[in-house]
Design brief:
With 254 residues, the protein is an alpha/beta fold. Helices cover 43% and strands 16% of the residues. It binds NADPH dihydro-nicotinamide-adenine-dinucleotide phosphate. The site of NADPH dihydro-nicotinamide-adenine-dinucleotide phosphate has 27 residues, from helix 1.
Amino acid sequence: VDRLTDKTALVTGSSRGIGRATAIRLAREGALVAVHWTADRQAAEDTVALIEKEGGRAFAVRAELGVPGDVHTLFLGLERGLEERTGEARLNILVNNAAVTPTGSAPEDLTPEEFDRYFAVNAKAPYFLTQRAAALMPDGGRIVNVSSAVTRTAAPDQLAYAMTKGAIEQLTLHLALILAPRGITVNSVAPGITDNGGAIFANPDAVAAMSQLSAFKRVGGAGDVADVITFLTTDEARWITGAFIDATGGTLLT
Ligand code: NDP
């Protein structure tokens, strides 16, 4: 613990799931964490409360991503929260985690509107969030983009979603070189099937089937992925940049 003392962090989509687990771990390491959410205020407040109960520091920021003005709204709240607590709008760590996850139409039925929504939330928002965040980020900052195993293995039902995750991996690759002169690292973390508290993870048959995909024969926990993200934000990970980090529990081995 205490590897992130005096650091500040924004984790998008940290009201629940992998984002929440990441926010909790970053706070445990000493970071002041902005818990971003859009629909579920209670979940965001619960995340902040969980952090504060452990003696950590966090505040909630609401902004819907994928709509005009999204990044501006998020940064108004973020900068105000940071200034109130630290006297300045300095951001050391950005975790681009929020995403529209694949629950919609099969590829042959996907509408242009659904396609645009995937790209607006999962690719365009992280691009412009990162552009804005980089301006507030001192030397030695950290950017982690949450991708998915579906960029390395065909998942026909998730085609458009997978395309957006391919896009965020390109953001990682190119931005890593652009920001390297400032000592800022940019990496992608790819989860496999991860229990985010969603309804399907309460169905034992579904969980048993999903477990077979991992080499360890279980589904991932949000903490399994969050620990990897957290490591990448520490000084210990300073020599890793532009990387694709497989956090799938060996899902891609076969
Ligand atoms: P969840 O669905 O559990 O949580 C999504 C989070 O993102 C919530 O905090 C939600 O906020 C926020 N969010 C979603 N859409 C928007 C939006 N339009 N604007 C603002 N916030 C939004 O996510 P997971 O933990 O499952 O996934 C986290 C990341 O991991 C995603 O990038 C996902 O693609 C990736 N991933 C997940 C896998 C899994 O099996 N779980 C597998 C591979 C990758 P709110 O609660 O307020 O709606």
